[in-house]
Fold:
Amino acid sequence: MKRLVIMAACLLLLAGCKHKQEQPSSSTSVDYTQVQIPAFSTDSAMMYASEQLAFGNRIPGTEAWRQCADYLARQLGRWCDTVVVQPFNAKLWDGRAVPGRNIVGSFNPQASKRVLLAAHWDSRSWADNDDNDAMHHSPVPGANDGASGVALLLEVARGMASMPPSVGVDIVFFDVEDQGVAEWSEVYDEHSWCKGSQYWAETPHVPFYTAVYGILFDMVGCSEPRFTKEFFSRQYAPGLTDKIWQCAFALGYGGVFVNQQTDPILDDHLYVNELAGIPMVDIVQNTQGISFFKHWHTTTDNLQNLRGETMQMVATVAMKTVYGDYPTQP
Structure:
C-alpha cells in the first residue's frame, strides 16, 4: 500500500469515532474569518492540474516526466524569487534505478524564519488498486493523487507573489513519492515510498535548511473531501495540527476537516519530521471505509473526478493559518 497503517491497535480504538461537527479543543486568539489572504481561482487550479496530466503519466525517467518537470520549474519561476531543481537518483523496490527531480520555489529566500509547503508531483506506475485486475500493471493518471496538491500550490504561489506573508516560504514538489511496492508483488519495503522527500530531508536544497513548520498537501481535490488528524501529524506537530483544524472550524469547514484522530500514514511528512526535524502536518484525504478515496491508485483517478472547489477550500484553510501567524507586510 502507498500509506502503511502501522498501529493495528489504533483501528480498535478509533472504531466508531464520529466527530464530524465537533470543535477542536485547542483555542486561538486569531480571528481567522478576518485574516486577509490572496485570492484563489478554482479555474486556474484546475488548469494547472489539466496541464500536468496533458504531458502524460509523470513516471520518473519518461519524456512526459521530463516535460512536466520543466513546466513546473517554469511555473514557479513566474512567481517565486528563486527556483532550485534538485536532481537525485533513486532505487525502486524492483531494483530499477530512476532519476528524480525535487523542485523548490522560494519567496524571500534571505529570511531566516521560514514555512514549508509541499506536495508530490510524480504519478504512480501501477494501478494496483483498480477493480479491474487487468489494469493492475497500467499507470495511474494521478489527478487527485499528485496533481491536485501541485495545482493547489501553483495557484497559492501565483497569489502569494502579489501578497507575500511576513515570512520566508518554500514550495517543494517532491518526486518519486508514489513508486513504492506494488500490491501484486511479493516484496515488502516500507521505505520504498517517498524517495524524493527522503533525499531532500537528508540533503536539503539549501545547506542547514530549517523551517518553523510545514504543511503537506496530498489528494486534496476529492469530490467528497474529508480530512482527519493523522497520527504522525499529531505526534510531531500537535500544535500546528490543532491550529489548522481550529482554523477550518472557524471558517465553517468543520464537517470536512473532521476533528478525529486517525492512524499513521506513511507520506512525505514522515521523513520531513524525522530526518529534517521540521514539524509538518499532512492534509490528506481520508474517506471512511476505503483507502483514501474511491479512485486511489486506479485508472479512474482523472480530471473528471477532481474538484477545484476542494482545492480552494484546503488552500484557504492553509493560507489563513499561515497568514494568521505571519500577516502580509504593509
